[in-house]
Q: What sequence folds into this?
C-alpha cells in the first residue's frame, strides 16, 4: 500500500469502508466511534487527498491501492 497522502491508520480504515459503500452511520457502528468522528475522518480524507466527495475518494483509493 502506497500511502502518499499521509492518511492515518484510522483514516485508511474509514476509507476502506467508504470503498465498500458504507454510510457514515455504518462506518461509525463498525469502528465503534460516533458519526461525528466518522464525519471528521471523512473530511480529513477529502482534504488530504484533494478530492471533493466520498465517491471520488473511493475511486482514488481503488486506483492508488489505498484501501
A:
Amino acid at each position: 500500500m502506497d500511502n502518499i497522502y499521509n492518511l492515518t491508520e484510522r483514516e485508511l480504515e474509514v476509507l476502506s469502508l467508504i470503498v465498500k459503500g458504507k454510510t457514515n452511520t455504518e462506518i461509525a457502528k463498525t469502528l465503534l466511534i460516533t458519526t461525528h468522528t466518522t464525519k471528521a475522518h471523512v473530511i480529513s480524507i477529502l482534504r488530504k487527498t484533494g478530492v471533493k466527495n466520498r465517491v471520488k475518494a473511493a475511486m482514488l483509493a481503488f486506483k492508488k491501492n489505498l484501501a
Residues 35-49 form the longest helix (15 residues).
